[in-house]
Sequence to fold (504 residues):
Amino acid sequence: MTTNVFTEEHHSNNLSQIESKNTKPSEKIWEPGRMNFRPLALLLLLFVYSLSARDKPNVLFIISDDLTATALGCYGNKICKTPNIDRLATEGARFTRAYCQATFCGPSRASLMFGYYPYASKATGYTIGRKEVGADKDSWAQHFKKNGYHSARISKIFHMGVPPDITKGSDGADDPESWNEAYNSKGPETKVPGLAKQLSNNPGGLKKGTGSSQSFNVVEADGDDLVHSDGKTAQKAVELLHKYKNMEKPFFLAVGFVRPHVPLVAPKKYFDPYQLKKIVLPPKIPGDQDDIPQNPANRRTTANYQMDLNQQKGTLRAYYASVSFIDTLVGKILSTLEATGQRDNTIVIFTSDHGYHLGEHDMWQKVSIHEESAKVPLIICVPDKKPAVCHSLTELIDLYPTVSKLCGLKIPGNIQGKDISTMLDDPTFKVRKAALSSGKGRLLRTEKWAYLDYGRTGELYDMERDPKQYTNLINDSEHATVLKQLKDQLQSKLNAIDKNDLDR
Ligand SMILES: [Ca+2]
Ligand SMILES: [Ca+2]
Fold:
């Protein structure tokens, strides 16, 4: 894809020449007859435009793929090493109750990029969402592009198939209207030299959702970071940050990492700190699975994958290695932002498209709408704002309006997220009574309750008393009233979402 950076730099040179001429003391400019009103007004307009564009903060949006908050040090993990993301969390606002709108790639990304719930857009499959929302709607990146920003994508922002689009270096289902420039990062994935293992099985291929594309294929790879797609992604980000340093326009740079999405492939050095015997699996209680409805959302289990204890620990170890790999790359990008003098004028956002199960309830992977799968890590670091930990409920769909507000852009009237920028000044501020997520079911999450609705069946958890979601209260008569309230609340939220300007 071509870039118009050259045009912009050329443009900016002209502007700086005009400005420097303008700043020289020259009575001649005001001499009657030497310059009429129109060019002067144009000159002033250009000056004001360049000033206001430069005054706007840059946006660096980093999104990881299939990264659960539970794997990060700043969210309480004691084993997985994530010093760079942890540091970013101490410099910005870390959100402890941020939820994705869908627990797998396509609809989650379509929702956060276009600002419509999957229930509104019907973008519920492996789609970018453009076809569903229509050509007249602006994506988050496109909104910035149309409002004076230089917009760029590196690797997976909208849906891409991992690994097929990564091994081919192809766009996946991209939205070209969103970007001034876009780059893919081709990588070998499992076809890399190293120590390869498969840590899950799928006997007979009978259980849908446990097939080979989601198997725990692991490679402790020979060679350095740059062998891999994500290593190249970070390197491209470094290159662009250097290029943007002297650009007249502010930038909206979206950087998408594909790990820790399977296959769990990373350089060997990231596996070395994790000894199998020191890996600790999530705590388990006997019979935990007994009250979990057996539907497609919940069938990615240790039993279905036929994983023994060493395979479970090995998978966790490979996931942690993949997360540490990403963490190092995040650090590399942030160091460049600092070194190029742009950190003080750049809003940095770090998140993931959804969470992931790492053995809780003996469940693995995504699609489930339990806490580990529906909750995402979210850090928003705005220059000049105090670090904070925010427990208020928020949704990924809120990023579009919030970052628009922070950058002084109009919030488009059609989008369905809420501006949470006030939480960055006051972390106790609340904009939502409940968050909504979806997979093969619907999650309504209030501060106290998690209601998982599958139609005929469901789950209800008291998140204050039972944060690990061990005891399903859905059939408990003592909770009939609260269940009815949550059902009504879910229905009214869905009704509100249904009131939109999409022709669906
Ligand atoms: Ca994903
Ligand atoms: Ca249970």
